[in-house]
Amino acid sequence: MPFKPHYLLVSLTLCWFVALQAFPMNGCAACQKCRCIRTSSAFISPRQFHRIEILPPGAHCRQTEIIVTKKDKATVCVTPDARWINKVIAKLQRTNKKKRSAELPISTTIE
């Protein structure tokens, strides 16, 4: 009979460790929110871009988020439906595709 409190303490400690391991170090994914509260469809010149992030929908947010970091370190959330951003993204993808194909070594066989 005196072992019951001991077993209860051990089982509660074990449950606590299991629950602790279930969550990532930066918090639970369900607790994270969308990064973009407001979006803008106003044109931003690609020359001002420092970085562009495209975050697909997921557990943290239901909609696609496009975050543009400008050279002056200001961040702007762009509406994914804006025509101009879709054109910029398509152009960047074409440019990256060309760069990758240019970087591939050309193999020649000598007979």
From TrEMBL:
<feature type="signal peptide">
    <location>
        <begin position="1"/>
        <end position="22"/>
    </location>
</feature>
<comment type="function">
    <text>Ligand for cxcr3.2. Chemotactic for macrophages.</text>
</comment>
<dbReference type="InterPro" id="IPR039809">
    <property type="entry name" value="Chemokine_b/g/d"/>
</dbReference>
<dbReference type="InterPro" id="IPR001089">
    <property type="entry name" value="Chemokine_CXC"/>
</dbReference>
<keyword id="KW-0964">Secreted</keyword>
<dbReference type="GO" id="GO:0006955">
    <property type="term" value="P:immune response"/>
</dbReference>
<dbReference type="InterPro" id="IPR036048">
    <property type="entry name" value="Interleukin_8-like_sf"/>
</dbReference>
<dbReference type="GO" id="GO:0042056">
    <property type="term" value="F:chemoattractant activity"/>
</dbReference>
<dbReference type="InterPro" id="IPR033899">
    <property type="entry name" value="CXC_Chemokine_domain"/>
</dbReference>
<dbReference type="GO" id="GO:0008009">
    <property type="term" value="F:chemokine activity"/>
</dbReference>
<keyword id="KW-0732">Signal</keyword>
<protein>
    <submittedName>
        <fullName>C-X-C motif chemokine 13-like</fullName>
    </submittedName>
</protein>
<dbReference type="InterPro" id="IPR001811">
    <property type="entry name" value="Chemokine_IL8-like_dom"/>
</dbReference>
<dbReference type="Pfam" id="PF00048">
    <property type="entry name" value="IL8"/>
</dbReference>
<dbReference type="GO" id="GO:0005615">
    <property type="term" value="C:extracellular space"/>
</dbReference>
<keyword id="KW-0202">Cytokine</keyword>
<dbReference type="GO" id="GO:0006952">
    <property type="term" value="P:defense response"/>
</dbReference>
<feature type="domain" description="Chemokine interleukin-8-like">
    <location>
        <begin position="31"/>
        <end position="92"/>
    </location>
</feature>
<comment type="similarity">
    <text>Belongs to the intercrine alpha (chemokine CxC) family.</text>
</comment>
